[in-house]
Amino acid sequence: MGVIMSKEFHRSIDVDGSIKAKAWDFLTKLSQNAELTGLDVKIPKGPADKRVRTARVDLNYRAVLFAVSDDPEPMWLLAAIRPHDQAYEEAQSLVLDINPANGAMEVTRPAKIDATVTEYRKRAVEPDAPQVLPFTPDELVGLGINAEVAEQAVRLTSEDDVLGLAADLPEWQQQALLDLATGTSLQDVRASYELDNTAAPSADPLEAVQRATSRMEFVYLEGDDELRRMLEGDFAAWRTYLHPTQRDLAYRSTYNGPFRLAGGAGTGKTVVALHRAAFLVRKSPTARVLLCTFTRNLAAQLQLDIRGLLGAGESERIDVRGVDQVVRRVVEHVDGAPGQPLGEREQDQLWDEAVHAAGVPADLAPHLGPAFLAGEYRTVVLSLPEHTRDAYLKAKRTGRGLRLNRVQRAAVWRVVEAYERAVETSGRTTFDALAARAARLVGDADVERYDHVVVDEGQDLHAGHWRVLRGLVASGPNDLFICEDGHQRIYGERVVLGHFGIETRGRSRRLTLNYRTTRQNLRFAMGVIGDESVVDLDGDAETVAGYRSAFTGPTPELHGFASDGEEARFAADTVRGWVDGGVSPAAIAVLARRSAEQERARLALKDAGVPVELLQRDGPGNADSVKIASMHRAKGTEFSRVIVIGAEAGVVPLDWVVEGRPEPEYSAARGRERSLFYVACSRARDQLIVTWSRTPSPFLPTTV
Ligand SMILES: Nc1ncnc2c1ncn2[C@@H]1O[C@H](COP(=O)(O)OP(=O)(O)OP(=O)(O)O)[C@@H](O)[C@H]1O
Fold first, then answer.
1. What is the pLDDT at residue 1?
2. Are 430 and 398 in contact (CB under 8 A)?
3. Which atom number of ligand 1 is nearest to the Cα of residue 265?
4. 186 C-alpha to center of ligand 1: Å?
5. Distances (CA, A) of 411 to 368, 379, 391
6. Which of 322, 502, 600, 704 makes an SS bond possible with 296, Cβ 3.0 to 4.6 Å?
C-alpha cells in the first residue's frame, strides 16, 4: 500500500498523546484491507470530492482521507484526524486537486476560500495606496494561484491583507504571494518553487506528490519503516516538509567547493544544515561528516535533531561538536590532554603581565589593554600563515584601528610570545591558544579528518577555528557548507573566509523567509538592528532586505519600571499567568544581559511558585521548567514566549564592555552588544515582551 501523508494529518496525531498509538494501529489496518478490518470506512453525505472518506481511529476520533487510486493497489491520502463530528464536517468540504498550471498536489476547502474572497470583494479599495502585488490577475493565475483569489489580491494594499486573503490556500500559494508582495519577481518565484517544466501537469498522484511545492505539505511513504519513523518522536515539520528553496540547498548533489548560506534569525539555516549533513552521510556509506557549531548547548541540540532526522545508525557517522571541542580534539590527539582553560579575568591578567615582561615602548603601552590584545591575537595572530615574528611583521591588520609601525609590531609580537609562555607555564590553556596550536598541527598531524564539514553559526568563529576546519577537510566538491548571520555576530571579530582558503564567492545564498516568528516580532527585531552596518563572511555588506514572515501574532509589549524589583515581579507575574493559562513552562524563557538580572528573575519566579532553571550548557535541560538564560546562551534557541528583562541604558549595551575603547573597537563592541540584543529578541516564536527599569536601552526601536 502506498500512503501520502499530509502535514495536517501528521500534526493532528501529535495533538493528543493517546492518538499516536491508535494512529499506528489505524494505519496498519488500512494497509491490510480497509474494508475488512473494522475501520468503518464511510463516504460522507454530499461530499465536495467523491474520493473523500472518513474512517474510525477510535470511538471519538476519525480520520479524513482520500481514496486516491486503486491501481495497481490502493493508495490513500491521509488528510487529518479529527473528533467525530468535525471529521464528517471537514470531509464534506475538502477537495483534492492537481494544480492545472504546475502540477502541485493541493487539498483545500473551496467553500472557505470563496467565503474569504467574498468578504474581501466587499471591502473598499483605498484609492491612493499603492498595491502590494504589482501584477495582473492573469500573471498570478499563470503561476498557479487560485483565480478568484488572484482577482482580489491585486487590489490589496498591505501584506497583512494578502496573507489574510490567502489564508486558506495551499501553503505554497500563500508563500509565493508573500514573496511577490515583498518584492520577489515572477521569474524568481517560478524558479524557487520550480513552477516551470510543467507543460502538461500529470494527473498521476505519485508524480504530483514529488513536486517541490507538494513536498511543502505532503510526503509519500512507501513502506512501514518509513511510516514508523515518521510517527516516532514529536511532530516536527522541519524534518519532512521543507520549503523548495531549503530542499534545493540541502539536497543539491554537488557544490564545487565551499558553500555559504546566510540569512536572518529564524530563516531555517540550522534546518538546512541538518538536512545537508543528513544528505551527505546518506550519499556515501563511508562518508564521515563533521557538523559543527559554536557552543556546546547548540551542539547538544543538533545531536538530538540529527538523531530525529536519521535514526541511530546513520547518525553515528555524523560527528556533532562545538567548534572548541573540535579544536581540543586535534590538540589532544598530538599533545595529550590540555590543561583547564583560564577564565576571562585570568587571561586579562596574563596579558597585562605580558605587556610588562615584553618591555613595550612607553607611548605604546597605554594602547595595549587586554581587550585590544585578545582581539589582535584572534584576528591577526591566529590568521598568520606561519606562527612567526616575520609573518606578523608583514601581516595585514585591516580593521584593527590602532596603526602599528614596524618597531611597535615587533613589541606586540614580544607581548604575544610572553603571553604564550605564561599560558604554557601556568599548566592551563586558553581557547585561543588551543586554536593556535591546533591550526599548526592540523596540516601534518595524524588527526581524524572528515569528508565533509557543515558549520552552523559561522559568524562567530574566529580565524583559528577556520584554519582548523579548513585543515580537517580536503579542498574539493562538497567540502564545507557554512551557515551564518552577520547580524548575530556576538563573539568574534569579523573575518573573511577567503583568507583561509575558503572561497565561497559565487557559491552563496541568503534565506529571507522567517519560519520562527510572527511578522510583529520580526519587525521589532529588525528595528533593533536598525541601520547597524554589518559584513558577512565574504567581507561584503550584509542586508536585511526581504526578511519576511507569514505568521501573525500579538504586537511585542514594552514595559518600563521604576525599580529592578518591580520589573522582576512583573516578569514573575506574567510567567505565572501564562503557566496558569496552560502554557508549558518549557516553552517560556526569561533572558537578560547580566547575571544580576537573571538571578533576580530566578528568585522572583521561584517565589511565584513557577518551576525554573538556568539554561544548561550541555543541552535543552528539564522539560518542566521555565528557562532563565543570558543573551549569549540564548543563541540558537527558541521559545514560544520570551521576556527580555534588563533592557536599560548601561546594561544594553553593557557599559564596561564598550566604554573607554578607541575606535574602531568601540563601534565593534557596541555592534556586538546590539547583535546580542537582536539575538535575544529574535528567540520568541509567539509572544515577546521587553522590560527595563529606569532609562530604556538606546537599542529599543522607536516604533513597535
Ligand atoms: N520547512 C520548515 N517547516 C517547518 N518549520 C521550519 C522549517 N524550516 C525551519 N523551521 C523552523 O523554524 C525555526 C527556525 O529555524 P532554524 O533554527 O533552522 O533557523 P536559523 O536560521 O538557524 O535561526 P537562528 O539564526 O536564529 O538560530 C525552527 O523552529 C525550525 O524548526
1. 66
2. no
3. 26
4. 25
5. 10, 17, 14
6. 322
CB atoms within 10 A of CB 147: 12
Q: Give the number of the atom of ligand 1 that is nearest the alpha carbon of residue 682.
A: 26
Do 2-99+212-233 and 242-333+443-514 fold alike per CATH? no
| Residue 445 Cβ contacting ligand 1 at under 6 Å | no
270 is in an annotated binding site: yes
Q: Which CATH number fits domain 2-99+212-233: 3.90.1170.20, 2.60.120.10, 3.30.2310.20, 3.10.20.310?
A: 3.30.2310.20
Ligand 1 in contact with 24 (CB < 6 A)? no
- Per the annotation, does 396 bind a ligand? no
Using most ligand atoms within 8 A of CB, pick from 215, 219, 270 the residue to mutate for ligand 1: 270
How far is Cα 264 from Cα 511, in angstroms, rounded to an integer? 7
What is the share, in percent, of the chain residues with pLDDT greater than 90?
A: 65
Task: Answer yes or no: is 266 a known binding residue.
Answer: yes
- Residue 295 CB contacts under 8 Å (≥ 6 apart), including other chains: 322, 457, 617, 633, 635, 636
Measured N-to-C along each axis, helices 431-441 and 323-335 cross at an angle, to the nearest 10 degrees, of 60
Task: Give, using CA atoms, the residue closest to atom 7 of ligand 1.
Answer: 238
Helix (H) or strand (E) holding 265: none
Query: Tens digits of per-residue pLDDT, 347-393?
Result: 899 999 999 998 888 888 888 888 889 888 988 898 888 889 999 99
* pTM of the model as a whole: 0.93
Ligand 1 atom at minimal distance to the Cα of residue 635? 27
The CB of 635 under 6 Å from ligand 1? The reply is: no
621 annotated as ligand-binding? no
Domain boundaries, the chain: 2-99+212-233, 105-200, 242-333+443-514, 344-428, 554-693
Topology of domain 554-693 in CATH is Rossmann fold (3.40.50)
pLDDT of residue 360: 87
Check residue 36 and give its pLDDT. Answer: 64
Is 268 touching ligand 1 by the criterion CB < 6 Å? yes
Grouped pLDDT means (10 residues each) for the chain, 704 residues: 88 80 84 74 92 93 91 86 94 95 95 96 83 95 96 93 95 96 94 79 86 95 75 82 96 97 96 98 94 92 92 88 94 89 88 90 87 87 88 86 87 94 88 89 84 96 94 96 95 86 93 94 93 85 87 95 96 97 95 95 95 81 88 93 97 89 82 95 97 95 76
Write down the ipTM of this complex.
0.99
Residue 269 annotated in ligand binding: yes
Distance from Cα 517 to the centre of ligand 1, integer Å:
9
CATH assignment of 242-333+443-514? 3.40.50.300
